[in-house]
Amino acid sequence: MNVDDLQTAMAIAERVEQFVREVVVPYEKDPRRDHHDCPTDALVLELRERAREAGVLTPHILADGRHLSQRGTALVLARTGLSPLGPLACNTCAPDEGNMYLLGKVGSAFLKERFLAPLLAGKARSAFFMTEPAEDGGAGSDPSMMQTTCQRDGDDWLINGRKAFITGAEGAQIGIVMAKAQEGACMFLVDLPDPAIRIERVPRTLDSSMPGGHAIVTLDNLRVPSRQMLGNAGEGFGYAQVRLAPARLSHCMRWYGACLRANEIATAYANRRMAFGKLLIDHEGTGFSLAENLIDLKQVELMIDWCAGVLDSGAPGGAESSMAKVAVSETLMKVADRCVQVMGGSGLTEDSIVEQVYREIRAFRIYDGPTEVHKWSLAKKIKRDWTRAQA
User: Fold this and answer.
1) Contacts with 386 (C-beta within 8 Å, 6 or more apart), sequence order
2) pLDDT category, 344, cuts 50, 70, 90?
3) Is position 98 within any domain?
4) Domain with 303 in it: what CATH number?
């Protein structure tokens, strides 16, 4: 990232941070939540209008359509993450941010105009239909187990199957559906809602930052025009990798910001709360916990910057994003846990966002592939590289 790009990203990040701290944070007590305690679309739309007025809506994509570099994006997305509502307000949240990235990279002119434009404008939410129910033997961390099928029917495709944990499906206007054809995996852009896409249920989950929750969905003879296929039949797995490598890193960026804020709150608490005749911060156990948080947060920042630099270089970045996903999610879990512990009973209540950050970070260790799958992928790469070196 050259000096001009860095300065641009830093200037955007400063505006975003000011907006999140001054405008978004007060909304954390807003009662507009659904029955799963997720923000309602009415709340999201109001926040996005405030972001539009402040000039920080979709801030990682410039007015001319260019994306900031991944390193620049890291600076900006971390600031949106200072509140669980920040990514929603600034339109940098999952799954929309990853879907925008994918469409921007490989979408046709028609798909960009029809589906990408409303996402960039913050006027629509989207969902990514890939994961399938375990009881069906469907795809989870192993996409090769895909059970959802698509078949040609004249100029259309018919899609049938079930999907699970589809973030934001309830209330979304745009969907990216992954299915398998004779040629291989395919991706399609669809308008939502559609009567052929039925939400079976939205299970209550540990996390609650994403509108629409994580739905179980049935696709029953979903008809999609051929021109709404992303690329060509059989290229779906390749496009999934285009999306997932930076998307995993984006999760790291946003939740790094959330843990920065949680640590600020825990630090303030430790410097005000008295126990056994002195401030908590003066007790070695508390002081050392906060010191460890500083060390871990710096390590997370450096890991994100390193992985972002690899992606900016044009390398595929699959192994690097897996390393970052594991290291950052596991390390931030420790940071969030210490914040709760420092605050004691106060850290367990909804009176501050520390409790929510703890829950969200726990879910982050599962999003876009659990820790164990990424370690397994890296282990296979180690064996492959070693075997190649011996040949």
Assistant:
1) none
2) very high
3) no
4) 1.20.140.10
